[in-house]
Amino acid sequence: MALLDRLRPQPAWKHADPAVRIASLDTLPESELGVIATLARTDESPRVRRAAIARLTDADALGTIARGDVDTQVRADALARLLALALDGTDIPRAALAARALREERALVQVARSAPDAEIALAALDRLSEARAFSAVAKHSTHDAVRARALERLTDPAELEAVAVTTEFNDTGVAAVDRLGDCAAMDAIAERARNPVVARRARAFIRVREQRAADARAKAEAGARRRALLTEGVDALEHASDPARARAELARLEAEFGALAGDAGSEEDAARFAGRIAVQRSRLDDLEQAEVAAAAERADREAGIASREALIARAGEDAEDLDAHLAGLLSEWSALSTLAGGDDGSWTRRFADTGEQARKRVEARKRAAALHDDVVALVGRIEALVAPEASLDESERVWPVLESEWKAFTAPLELDAELRARVARVSTTFAERRKARQADAVRLRDHRLETWKAMAARAAEVAAQADAPMRDVDQVVRDLKAVLEPHAGGSGGGESTKGAPPEAIAAELRTSLAALSTRLRELRDAEDWRRWANAGIQEALVGQVEALKASKDLPNVARQLRDLRRQWKAVSAGRDESGALWQRFKSAADELQVRCDEQARLVAAEQAVHLQARVALCESAEALAQSTDWVTTAETLKQLQAQWAAAGPAPRDQVAELARRFRTACDTFFTRRKTDLATLKQAWSENAAKKEALCVQAEALAESTDWQAALTGIKQLQADWKAVGPVRRNRAELLWKRFRAACDKFFERYGSRHQIAEQQRVEQREGLVKQIEALAAEVAAGTLPDGLPATVQDLWTQWQNGAGLSGEAGAALRARFDAALHALVGAAGEAFAGTRFDVGAQVARRTALCEEVETAVAGPSKPSEAGSSPAATLAALLRESLAANTIGGRVNEDAKLRVVADKVRRAQQQWRDLGPAFGEAAVALESRFNHAVRRFFDRHPELRHAPSDGPRAGGPPRHGGGGRPDGPRGDRGDRRGPGGGRPDNRGPRPDGRPREARPDRDPRPVSS
Fold first, then answer.
1. Spatial separation of the C-alpha atoms in residues 765 and 812, rounded to whole Å
2. Is the pLDDT reported for residue 186 higher than 50?
3. What pLDDT does 861 receive?
4. Separation of alpha carbons 50 and 898, rounded Å
């Protein structure tokens, strides 16, 4: 079987020639991924393993190879392949698996910074441990959540400061500043932060710190003033007379002073305050002792006063044997001790007066008991005066006599309180009667006086009227006679008799009576003559009414007939002829009235027809009052209103009611239409306000450079615009044009976003160039600014880390920057000693790197050629065997070349870290270095792009303007997309080459 197996054809990937196996990898289908993984792990040729890794997508297998393969370059290829898969945004699950297989810190940092999916970036971030790694992710990650979590993991204040200074993201920089809080780093951040938002945030912290310092100073000054006031408050208690209240105030002042202990108060204030407190407390102790003594004296005096008051009260008590009772009290009084504070004898006099009053009361009771029956009889006589059956006039006459008798009889007696109360009630009754009579008399007098005054005013008013009617004059004359004639014989002055007016008013009334009596006689004579004159007028009225019989204009006849009747009534006479004239007038008027009534019936019938027409109009209007067909109904109602105006006459009272109904129906509809129009206008106004707000937002977004967010916002605004209701026609077009113009402006700028970003980068670069040119001019003028090396280092770092430029503009700015930098270093070389720009140190380091690369490129000499000892020769052979991964076998030339390539790449990285080259020697060394590197990679082109453990995958160093290597980035162009946001491409291809950027579709605003 073994022989048959040898004779059986083998697949190409099992061929003995590594080149055949490598070629077979390109023909293996996707179903043979297991074969590819096997070759990547177990093939004996590193070249085959590296070729298999280029097609391998199994993250676990790649991770195993990257950690365990014996070949350094194979491990590097596996790591690079894993990293490319982790950064590939076309297959997120595979990218997640690749990210989990990574172990190297630098690779995890790159995934956390550039992974297209935020979850993958967060998972990579959680596996990091170094502070610098967290700092790099926080500065440059394209995901907000990743930057935020990386910033949370940072605890080193220096790294937080570096994030705040260098990050281009507002949220990350502001969060870093907030994490640092108020510290000394705020000053550096405010001056050096690239992001103006972060700088403003740092300046805000500085302002808060300065404000706190000012507040602390103000607080200290206020504390000093307050301590002085508290000390003055203690001194103000010098004259306090209430020790308890003063002690409470002292305690309050002490507590408040103690609360100020935290301030920067002087010890002298505290000592002075304590001394004032001690003095006041000593004074209060003396006051309290004096008050205790005074209180004891007051207590003794109050006890003596209480004893005397008790004896005086007992002396005023009634007793059966008053003399014995008073004698015992007098003994007790004599035994009392001397009253504390002195006694002026008033207590003794009160005691004696009280005893004397008690004796008088006893004697008065004895007399009252003897006269009790007489007193009771007198009270009965007095009460009889107010009995219901008693005569009022008689009682009024007798009461003063009995009242005097009662007072005289009972004055010296001590009577029962009930008897005195009975008499008092009778006295009150008579007093109330007397007041009632007086009030009635006053009211009657006032009423009569007002009546007489009103009569005098009325008489004067009628007398003053030249055309006063005869009946008014007659009535006033009768009223005046009724008042004056009953009192014609009274004497003058005041109220002559009861019911007579005062003399002044009576004289006025008599004068008015005389004048009006004469006027009344004249009016009566004139009335008689008028009656005789009206007979001719009546005859004329009869002739006029008889003449109306010939008229055919019955409405006019009716009006004239009513007028003639009013005239007849006004001039009717009382003579005998009036009867005949009246009959003639009445006969003619009745005949005319019959004709007018017939005409009125015809007019009423016609008005009834007109009334029915108006009723129909009202009903039609009321039926349309609740309509919502605003235009048609409005026209119909206007036609009904015209018909109403053209309708014929109808009864006035009924027409008024119908007119109210018709007007109400029309007003109801037009009010509803007005309200609906107002509501519609309100909706139009609200919609117009919403669309104006959308216009404002669109105009704001039109100027934005955050392209993706602004694009999303514009599209959302377009959707919101379509959701807003209609507006008034005359404003709709204007608002739409405004909104469309803002959207068009944004999309025009969006289509030119790369040019705008390029212009911003040009402006940023040009600003750096102008700064360094200004420094160069200042140094050339002989002035050496403070901190020049740090300033130049900062400008150079900003230039290297800034977004790169392409084309002639970038080359021109780079040439200007290099020229200014060389002029600076050349003019102030000593100031840069020991820095990156130290020319001597650079030349020495560059010479060493050149020699190192040239030695590595030339290759080591063989041990036998170097004249080494046998032991050295054996050691060299062992090193070669280890490099070729064989002990005792032939040397692996590929492994040796990879070792040399790694040395060259490390030298390239160290060369780039040196910064720009200055002087002819440095330029010559750079040419020498580049020549050696190019010579190596031209000789071994397969190693030019091979990945390695170094910072770059291979190839000669990249150069900036002026023939010198770039810094960390150089002018390689900004690979992040416009505005420093997410890149336009979708990550590198599996072979490591970048994808072509695919511009987003240029959407246009939707129609309104």
1. 11
2. yes
3. 47
4. 13
pLDDT number for residue 263: 55
Summarised one tens digit per residue, pLDDT across range 559-607 is 887 887 887 777 764 444 446 777 777 877 877 777 787 777 777 787 7
**pLDDT class for 764, splitting at 50, 70, 90?**
confident
Residues 746 and 709: their CA atoms lie apart, in Å, by: 12
Of the given ranges (200-209, 257-266, 279-288, 340-349), which has the lowest mean pLDDT?
Answer: 257-266
* Residues contacting residue 496 through CB under 8 Å, at least 6 positions apart: 487, 490, 503
**Contact, 615 vs 647, CB < 8 A?**
no
DSSP string, 960-975: -GGGSB-SSS-SS--T
Cα–Cα distance between 219 and 126 in angstroms, integer? 47
| Exposure on the CB side of residue 864, measured as CA atoms within 13 A | 0
Phi then psi dihedrals of residue 194, to 5 deg? -70, -35
Which amino acid is it at 695? C
Dihedral of CA atoms 98, 99, 100, 105 in degrees, nearest 10, equals: 130
Q: What local confidence, expressed as pLDDT, does residue 881 receive?
A: 52
Alpha helices in 574-651, H assignment, sequence order: 577-624, 630-646
Q: How far apart are the first and last CA of the chain?
A: 83
Q: Looking at per-residue confidence, does 485 or 673 come out higher? A: 673
Distance CA 741, CA 842 (A): 58
Q: Is 500 left (phi over 0), alpha (psi -120 to 50) or beta?
A: beta
Mean pLDDT over 493-503 rounds to 59
Structure tokens at 860: 């080591």
> pLDDT for 915-961, tens place per residue?
777 767 777 888 888 888 888 887 777 776 655 444 333 333 343 33
Cβ atoms 204, 228 nearer than 8 A: no
CA angle in degrees (0–180, nearest 5) for 547-552-555? 95
What is the rounded distance in angstroms from the CA atom of residue 142 to the CA atom of residue 541?
Answer: 118
The answer to whether residue 618 scores a pLDDT higher than 60 is yes
Stated as kind and residue range, the H or E segment containing 721 is: helix 707-723
DSSP-assigned states of every residue in 878-936: HHHHHHTT-SSS---HHHHHHHHHHHHHHHHHHHHHT----HHHHHHHHHHHHHHHHHH
Closest CA to 997 of 974, 970, 971: 974
Once rounded to an integer, what is the mean pLDDT over residues 737-755?
Answer: 87
- 322 in Cβ contact with 361 (< 8 Å): no
Residue with tokens 């009460």: 383
Cα–Cα distance for residue pair 5/20, rounded to 1 Å: 20
The angle formed by the CA atoms of residues 250, 254 and 259, to the nearest 5 degrees, is 150
Q: Which of 59, 8, 54 is nearest to 28 (CA)?
A: 54
pTM given for the model: 0.31
Of the candidates 430, 366, 424, the one whose C-alpha atom is nearest the C-alpha of residue 397 is: 430
- State both tokens at 617: 């109009």
Share of the chain above pLDDT 90, in %: 2
**3-state secondary structure at position 988:** strand
Assigned token pair, 590:
């009745």
Q: Quote the mean pLDDT of the chain.
A: 76
Q: What's the CA gap between 710 and 702, in Å, rounded?
A: 8
Q: Taking the CA atoms of the chain, what radius of gyration do you get in angstroms?
A: 65
Sequence length of the chain is 1008
C-alpha to C-alpha distance for 149 and 112, rounded to whole angstroms: 11
What are the pLDDT digits (tens) for 818-844?
888 888 787 777 777 777 777 777 788
Q: Quick one: pLDDT at residue 716? A: 92
Sign of CA dihedral 537, 543, 547, 549: positive
One-letter amino acid identity for 941?
Answer: P
- Residue 694's nearest CA partner among 731, 729, 722 is 722
Over residues 787-798, the mean pLDDT reads 83
* Residue showing tokens 């992710």: 137
